[in-house]
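Hi support team,

I'm opening this ticket because the web form for multi-chain structure prediction keeps timing out on my end. I have pasted the exact lines I submitted so you can reproduce it. The total is 1317 residues across three entries, so I didn't expect it to be a heavy job. Is there a limit I'm missing, or should I split the entries? Thanks in advance, R.K.
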Amino acid sequence: MHFLKELDQKDSMKIGRQLHAFAAELYPICRSITGDGIRRTLAMIQDRIPLQISEVPTGTSVFDWTVPKEWNIRDAYIKDSRGQRVVDFQRHNLHIVNYSVPVRATLSLSELQPHLHTLSEYPDWIPYRTSYYRENWGFCLSHKQMLALENGDYEVCIDSSLEEGNLTYGECYLPGRSSEEVLVSCHACHPSLANDNLSGLTVATSLAQFLSGRPLRYSYRFLFIPGTIGAITWLARNLESVGRIRHGLVLTGIGDAGAFHYKKSRRGDAEIDRAAAHVLRHSGEPSEVLEFSPYGYDERQYCSPGFNLPVGCLMRSVWGTFPEYHTSADNLDFIRPQQLAQSLRVCASIFDVLENNRSYLNQNPCCEPQLGKRNLYCSTGGDSIGAEINARLWVLNFSDGERSLLDIAERSGLPFEAIRDAAELLCENGLLAEIPGRT
Amino acid sequence: MHFLKELDQKDSMKIGRQLHAFAAELYPICRSITGDGIRRTLAMIQDRIPLQISEVPTGTSVFDWTVPKEWNIRDAYIKDSRGQRVVDFQRHNLHIVNYSVPVRATLSLSELQPHLHTLSEYPDWIPYRTSYYRENWGFCLSHKQMLALENGDYEVCIDSSLEEGNLTYGECYLPGRSSEEVLVSCHACHPSLANDNLSGLTVATSLAQFLSGRPLRYSYRFLFIPGTIGAITWLARNLESVGRIRHGLVLTGIGDAGAFHYKKSRRGDAEIDRAAAHVLRHSGEPSEVLEFSPYGYDERQYCSPGFNLPVGCLMRSVWGTFPEYHTSADNLDFIRPQQLAQSLRVCASIFDVLENNRSYLNQNPCCEPQLGKRNLYCSTGGDSIGAEINARLWVLNFSDGERSLLDIAERSGLPFEAIRDAAELLCENGLLAEIPGRT
Amino acid sequence: MHFLKELDQKDSMKIGRQLHAFAAELYPICRSITGDGIRRTLAMIQDRIPLQISEVPTGTSVFDWTVPKEWNIRDAYIKDSRGQRVVDFQRHNLHIVNYSVPVRATLSLSELQPHLHTLSEYPDWIPYRTSYYRENWGFCLSHKQMLALENGDYEVCIDSSLEEGNLTYGECYLPGRSSEEVLVSCHACHPSLANDNLSGLTVATSLAQFLSGRPLRYSYRFLFIPGTIGAITWLARNLESVGRIRHGLVLTGIGDAGAFHYKKSRRGDAEIDRAAAHVLRHSGEPSEVLEFSPYGYDERQYCSPGFNLPVGCLMRSVWGTFPEYHTSADNLDFIRPQQLAQSLRVCASIFDVLENNRSYLNQNPCCEPQLGKRNLYCSTGGDSIGAEINARLWVLNFSDGERSLLDIAERSGLPFEAIRDAAELLCENGLLAEIPGRT
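Hello R.K., no limit was hit. The queue was backed up. Here is the completed structure from your submission:
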């Protein structure tokens, strides 16, 4: 399978527009780590790819954690003394501190103040705040809105529920020839935030659509889960699957215009780490490879020392480094069709490396084979050889049973596709033989 | 023990002034590799810390060397024809070539000349010269002094003795819970030279005072010895102790205003090398780590291939790289209270790392433990986590039985104290357990 | 043997002029991969060094290749309608595409055109073209010459033969104390091209002359062979010798004024790689060390995975990176006596390292031995030690049975000769003993 070649036959701008359109559909939903927001989101993904949805009851123990109560919200507002909604959940779901307990009360401005969150540096933006594991309530609003609040009494209403229920997640499993798996994991718990992480949800959905029905070397498992508690719950319930995860990628924040960042797995030299670094280096896009650190997204759980899975994290701008992060400014304008399509392409390129990385054995290891008599060498002499012949020489010289195609690509500085194409041609000519059961 | 925290509660400038005052007391003494000068110096150190003083007779074989005759000097001068002392040992003990044999003679200027040493580039300074192992005599004087000498006869007197006697050195042993030792070695054989090495003597004495009476993980051994022959003699007489030296530091030239330099042990990756490099990197002071080389101070002997001990050398300006080196300009103005106090602090920080570097095992290795329910995580979401929580995540993720706290500090880029504090807090919360018997 | 010291007693400019004069003798001959041109060349080398010449019949199988037909040429030209030779092999042997089949024909300009090769960017230069393994014919001429050709009929004559015959190569074997070999390989198949590779032929010949009759640690084998097919043929016929090759060097393009380039063997850390890099670093000449790549000269064959011999390639300007490459501008002016002599010196320095690289054991490993009593240490103190004493300390400290002199030279940053001289002096003084059978 040459995913990239197939993908590059499609209209990249059209793909980008489709990704953005799907993000726009998902944007208004008020998601959280449990409840109907994430359920509705998973149902919309299920319309596109085969998704198995799991419900895990409140109170279930998952390692050191417990599945929390289910949270749902219908309405929330702050009304001033004239009965005007000065803060209104119906206008923007970031206005409510996610997981706020139900409240109905009348409070003076000074009593209300401790429950209000704003960003003074960005006075037009609403911050995103949560209080999952400590019962609390609050509103988020723009700093301008807060400054406009006059003294007086305010009616506060949070029409939410926090009750026994379930934690919901979805997974899409695409079987390949091998039971070894490629894991793709996205958090699906953020409300109206576009880059973090509708970008991940839409690209992952599109990747699953793209792979679906194609012959695959590896099996692929796409997880759409609430952050942290979702990864912990999935790991606790799937201990037998964990050993099959050969490569993994957390996808998040891949819709903005920033440079690509790949954060390595805790292992630091896993094949996914080398594949991602290789693809980014040859992508023509600005990019940076980051060492593993224990703070971040769900790679924190996959790379906890008891699992130490080969799971990295692909981002564009890194969380916390751009002002729009976790604010209402991370909206549908902040992500762009072209960037979403490029991110899809980078993921497909990484899968391409994983699917095609193999080890071969040069069948004529003593001296070069005579490529000229097989029309694999142009030989008027004096001219420099071309890139294709160069790739053939690299593959022949280093296919010694010790090195994979990715090893050879890295050592030669040539892109993986050039090395793979050379290997396939040399195989056809009987000059190379695949070493079975080896990467 | 958290040495640094305790030290930082004291008045750093007061410590600096005390160090400098002790250097000033020691400065006038005419020390050499044997004799009453070093004896008197050791007695003054003994007034402050428990010091065991050893006397090793002339002629004792120590490896390839022999303990030399003992040298003492009472007076020395050159008188001109008018009976004026034109060069006078009583004015500065650098005027005499150290280990000069007794002389009483009258010589013409041209006969005298071969015995005179000056520095034409620094015409006001007296050089420091020695002739330990070849019997000889000479005077050192400023270039200006020499130019002022007129033709005529000069009366030369060196009232010294070079006789059977002893080589003297002192050691201060502070027992800790482990019989494994930290060695601190200073040469104590230089006459009126302040940075080289009264700085080392005073800081080492002060360190021993500071450690004395405190609970210690390691035992500490401070050596105050004549350079080269002293280290060789100590090693030859303490072969059974050598195996207990787990970490070691030669202290020299740590009073001037130059940047810190740590010269690694011959091993290059000993724990002392990593601890010193780590401390200097986080010290906020300019510093440089140097690879081992076989020329230098007594690390030459400790790191000879038959011992190959993990002993590095802490300096500020490196010997031979500054003009004051081995001249009368290396005086009490060349070393400064603040620099001495800083050097003491760096040493204490290094000991802090050695004392506290341990390996722990994460007791919840599968996924992160829920720090929030233990009040170890602030969790309104949206905000970036603080440095303390970050340190906890690093310690948890990498306490996998393979890595020490110093390993984790290096990998995370965080200072050792932050990592150690996190480990202690996680231990108290039952999330971490020390792995006994491991660094 | 200290080759460099002996060489430096000779007049370097005289050596350079002799090398250039020999290149000038060889220059006019029309060499190819077979035939009388290379035979005559080998005979001229045989006048200077003992050379065993082998003839391998057309049709002999050598690995994946077959020894081709033998090519010889007597005359070739293109005559215009007035009977003027407008392109004339007698003027420059690059005018003929090497290995052109015999032709006698009259052609219009447009029929002739596909058989003409020029360089439009360098309109005065004749390119060098070959067609060894595909029967073809053609002429190379300057772009100016081609532009001057008028329409009309041209008489084309190539008086060549391509027939059953032999492939010819020469080898010079100089036995040393060990049967392990140093291989020096040069291609001898290029016609009137000076740097590529008369520079290699002349320097290799001179090296063999220089080594001849001297006591040698290693045996030396110099190969003068047609490129590619010659190396393949030699390897196929000498499988039993291959295992004896301990170090190897392909010499090519070492007469021009460019910086030295050493391309490492496929192993990348072979002793020859480290010796060559060390010598170039200390040569005082600009130089660069290149990683192995599978395109280049005959190191391609020696470093094919079935052999993986420790053979690097020494060049000045790298093939294909300078405009004169494979054109008539690579002539006797392009190579210079001084550069040829310097290249010879670099080769001799590399051999010096190989011949003298040994491991020694410090006989006084505990503490430094007392160098002063053996007059190996100047000791007035205060002064910095000199480079010679420094080298002695390095050799003593690191002669621990684990490190060779080259290891010590690299670690110390000192030139190999200084380390070797120190080792020899320390041996004479009984402070060091050679470890037999170790590099």
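A quick check on our side: Chain A has a mean pLDDT of 96. Let us know if the file doesn't open in your viewer.
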